[in-house]
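HOLO CASE FILE
Compound: adenosine-5'-diphosphate
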Amino acid sequence: MLKLTNISKYYHSNEVVALGLRKVSLEFNLGEFVAVTGESGSGKSTLLNVISGLDTYEDGEMYVNDEETSYYSIEEWEGFRRQYIGFVFQNYNIIDSYSVLENVMIALTIQGYDKEKRKERALELIDKVGLTSHKNHKASKLSGGQKQRAVIARALAKDCPIIVADEPTGNLDSESGRVIMALLQEISKDKLVIVVTHNFDQVEEYATRKIRLFDGEVVEDKIIKKSRKVEKELVVPSFTMSIYDLMSISLRNLFRTPRRTIFTAIISIFTVIIFVFSYGSYVSETSTSGNFYGGGYFNNVTESRIIVTKFDSEQFTEAEITSIEDLSKVRTVIDHDIILDMIAVTYQLEYTWINTQQHYINPAAMLKSNQLVKGTLPTSEFEVVIEEIEGKDVGDTIVIGFDNDYRFDSDSVGIGTEFTITGIAEKIKLGDWRGRLYFHEDFINSDELLYKAYYSGSYDSPLTLEFTYNDENIFYMEGQSILIDDSVPDGEIHVSDFAYEELMYNLGLNPETGTIDDLADEVFQLQGTTSFSEIILDLNLTDTYTSSSGKWSLMMINSNTIESLLPQGVYQIGVLVEDAYDAKRVMNEIDELGFNTIYPDAVTDPFSAIFAIFTSIYLGFILGFLMIVIYFISYIVLRNIQSSKKKDYLIFRSIGASKKDLNRVTIIELLFTSLFAYVFTMILFVINEGLDINIPRYLRYFTVGSYIFIFSLLVILSLLLGRRFNKKIFGKSVITSLKQE
Ligand code: ADP
Ligand code: MG
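Model generated. Tokens follow.
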């Protein structure tokens, strides 16, 4: 069944050609027990390697069941080794991380031995070689002789027609050697057994034939005793491992080489973290419109701000406000949303000039959890958290003006209120030239701030004022024409000297001869109009004052008076949430409560829309680039670790595993590791979602698609890496690599 004709084998190394076999012609049949002898270097091992398809030959032809083998493909040789050959190696070739039982079982798994009987068969052979008490010991813990016996059990357990053994008893004492030889004979009844030995005496009793090699040539080929005639038909089934087998081999490899596995897992975990961060920042960035201007209607545009009004433009009741406050994701509710669009001004003395800087006003509750980089939140009315302002730190004081006109007193110092800085916040919108100030709720809700929000003194004030007498508009009120000063009594109005003159003329009186007292019995009306209200107050003109350049104005009223002109009630509230994700949910809930919502961050203008497209392209590009970088880094870091598999894989191959299946094992191992890393890291991120620490919470932006997308990236990476590693592991022929190990 096995026939060699004129087989020659040369080894080429460093220009020197060594002879392995020279024109060897032999024919073997089932039932034979062949002893191969010869001195060291005579070519015995070479002969066995060629016969078992581990090594190639140059000249001649080898026939297996009359089939030529010189045209065999790699896959055909793999099939031959898997189904025909049980090999006992001179130098053990055992998988160190496996137990004895596993080493025997793996050969049966690869061969496709009947699943039900695998274990029984393995245990039977382990018992026969006397290793039952060691069956669960790791191969690395065995002595040389024990390893040899384990390898013999592995070769004999396989259901294959040819057993080749290269000095199988070389490491055993003579008694064990005898037992092994007897075992080989017993098993060989209907097989072909070829044993290489130094010690012919040991096999003499069993051998049916003796072959002696010298210098690569057959110098003796003698039948010692008649061999059994094997009549039975040789049926060699083909077999490929099931995905289940491949997965269990992968899992075992992972568990048996924990250091390799942990290292690979750590790399995978880092990869997942990098993916989640880069993709997370991408989705969180693109889930907000990225616009600064709120379509031109709003100043203070952030993903945290939702504006709520009633569809009938009426006031909110206490109960209605409470129902909104009670929504679970709502951080705080500002009764007068208009405050959020105010601009506050800080004044900074820079050498010889004063640098005025504009800021949005925000309640401290609008600070995101991870945004406060230093200090604490404000705890009282005149404390503030700032975004970085040069030269200002926690504990310093800062003057903040709220009038929208940058006024200075005689010492050229900005006019405003003094605040103590309690913390520094990170900028939430890079590129926005205005900064942000975060105030205590008591300050945000103060009446003073409210009238300043309505009456900024500029043309586009939300509150417009009209001064009338007998329903006649006797004065054109322009921006900055009314000054708020609490020295003016309630219900009274003071006019500037300049306004007084014009008023007298308009009323047909002589400002030269008359005095302000002439107007004492007259009633003037000041009308305040906002989009929510129209209020008219009757006022008396009681005094004049000198208008100065610093406080240029037409009239003066006190703050009670201006407050009376504001809408008396809550019409437009500001609802503040953590981020765009929460905003979407809260807006749905508010819709269900029956109120009107406006989300400034979603009010886009064409510029912002184009900007968003560019950020998408840019960040997509970054992600692709990251993939490539991670691929190469992982490859370099894991290369050596993966190469440590090489020896195990060679053993797998020498006992018949196909390259294709081993490639799959590598990839499945990487996929399992990735899956573990993925689940593990995601759990960490889920935990992070619930914590208030300084790690961005990106999962809230993730959809099912996001999870699949990141996992797909990981799978692609594993496939690419697996392919690359396999190329490295299977670079050379089995025997060349085995000899190098
Ligand atoms: P044996 O098993 O009888 O001791 P081998 O078959 O191992 O002999 O070797 C036969 C000859 O081939 C020897 O001369 C040996 O030096 C040579 N040889 C074996 N393997 C190689 C190899 N990989 N490279 C070069 N020469 C080799
Ligand atoms: Mg040898």
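CASE NOTES: The mean pLDDT is 85. The chain has five domains: 2-239, 246-286+610-740, 291-335+571-603, 338-446, 464-564.
CLOSED: yes
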